[in-house]
Specification:
By secondary structure, this protein is mainly alpha-helical. Helices cover 65% and strands 6% of the residues. The protein folds into two domains: 114 residues, Periplasmic binding protein-like II (D-Maltodextrin-Binding Protein, domain 2); 266 residues, no CATH class. A hairpin with a 6-residue loop joins strand 2 and strand 3. Helix 7 packs across helix 9. The longest helix is centred in the middle third of the chain and has 37 residues.
């Protein structure tokens, strides 16, 4: 046991002291924060003004103003000018060349077909952002609808609006009455955890394989196994590199929380005024709102309040458990592959069958976002080769306690089996040189 601890210590400290580990540990959260807050900064700093020309040659949504003699919208409340968005109207079609040389940077053309199917041609010099397209689409849709109701159906539009009902779902799980379910949004959060486990298992599993290959090719392992058993060497490598992964993850969590807090305080007024507590945006910026009051307001906000329904301690605990479990299974197999072969170029034929279950687990997890209650998700949340990834989605959308416990028990049993299996291959392959290894040969090693 002392020898395994020494190997773990060596593998751990030799990697965490590398410049590449320090750089990635620091730059990882900064990189993702830069992407997120950079996108916010770009959006807030966008000063482009959009002059939109609506071309309506047959007068569907426009009419002449007798007072000014200008073409104006039939329903002006739908095309109010904004800070960076202005509307103009015309009956005259413009050629692409005239539009290119003209003043407007977006042009929308309506025709006699637009009133029936809503399709319009949109020309632009620079692709308009989503909010600009949304404003144009909303105004046109409302205007076309009004025209069809008042001119075609000869109905009063206000009466029509009172009759029309838009159906929406307030999702309520019968097991959790009194709170909105938000299953798909939660599944998306779980998918983020699943991707993290998927990435860590691959990244650190390959590190185990390369570390074993390097020692084997340099014949260092011949000296090492004179002092320790091959199984002890394998377990020391797998556990040591796994602890490196956990260390990096925990540092990322702490560092990301700090970076996120700093970034949120920097963008507090803009984010608050656009999302959570509109009435108190100025107070938040000034620091006059009590933290408990702000938290309560955030919880009651429909847009983000559902995030407080997630059992975050449970999810982080499950993440750590299933990362360790999945890594122990795949890390042992990666170590066995590294011990069995003499060069990294020979690993492809053995990596494919090992990585296929992980890839399939990723696909199943992505599918569960659209169909969270699928029974296939329950199966792969228990199947040990896919459960480290799939269970993260299944748990966050409300997996039963017995399913989580069953998955954990099956995973632990499978860990012992695969560690034993990989150890049988490792003890023979680590000192085997110059021999072409096949699946039949591996089977012989297991039976030795």
């Amino acid at each position: 046991m002392n020898k395994i601890l020494l190997i773990i210590q060596r593998e751990y400290f030799s990697r965490v002291s590398k410049k590449s580990f320090i750089v990635m540990t620091i730059l990882g959260p900064l990189f993702f924060a830069a992407l997120m807050f950079g996108a916010i900064a770009v959006t807030l700093s966008d000063t482009t003004e959009y002059d939109v020309l609506i071309v309506d040659p047959i007068g569907i949504i426009t009419q002449m103003d007798p007072a000014t003699g200008k073409l104006v919208p039939r329903y002006p409340d739908q095309f109010a000018d904004q800070d960076k968005l202005r509307f103009s109207f015309s009956k005259d079609l413009q050629s692409p060349e005239a539009f290119k040389e003209g003043f407007y940077n977006v042009m929308v053309e309506l025709d006699d077909v637009s009133i029936s199917d809503g399709r319009c041609n949109m020309f632009f010099k620079k692709y308009p952002p989503t909010y600009v397209q949304s404003e144009i689409r909303s105004g046109l849709q409302e205007s076309l609808e009004r025209f069809r109701v008042t001119d075609s159906l000869k109905l009063d539009y206000e009466t029509y609006k009172r009759v029309r009902v838009e159906v929406s779902f307030h999702e309520i799980n019968i097991e959790r009455l009194g709170e909105e379910d938000r299953t798909q949004e939660k599944a998306t959060i779980g998918f983020g955890f699943a991707i993290a486990i998927y990435f860590f298992i691959f990244f650190y599993g390959v590190q185990v394989m390369r570390g074993v290959l390097e020692e084997k090719m340099n014949r260092i392992v011949e000296v090492i196994v004179s002092s320790v058993k091959p199984f002890q060497l394998m377990m020391g490598k797998v556990i040591g590199i796994g602890l490196v992964g956990l260390t990096q993850f925990l540092i990322w969590v702490i560092f990301s929380a700090i970076v996120f807090s700093v970034g949120m305080s920097f963008f507090s007024s803009e984010i608050a005024s656009g999302a959570a507590v509109v009435d108190n945006a100025e107070l938040i910026q000034a620091g006059a709102v009590d933290r408990a009051v702000l938290t309560q307001q955030l919880m009651e906000n429909e847009a983000i309040g559902w995030l407080f329904q997630i059992n975050w301690p449970m999810m982080i605990g499950l993440f750590v458990f299933f990362f360790i479990g999945g890594y122990m299974i795949y890390g042992s197999l990666f170590a066995a592959i590294g011990a069995a072969l003499d060069a990294e170029t020979d690993t492809q034929q053995f990596l494919l069958p090992i990585t296929l279950p992980l890839v399939f687990a990723y696909i199943v997890s992505a599918t569960m976002i659209g169909n969270p209650s699928s029974s296939i998700g329950s199966f792969f949340a228990v199947f040990p080769l896919t459960s480290p990834v799939t269970m993260m989605v299944k748990a966050i959308i409300g997996a039963s306690p017995w399913l989580i416990i069953l998955s954990m028990v099956v995973l632990v049993i499978t860990i012992f089996f695969f560690v034993w299996l990989a150890g049988r291959i490792y003890r023979v392959g680590i000192l085997m040189y110059g021999k072409k290894v096949s699946y039949r040969e591996l089977w012989k090693w297991i039976r030795y």
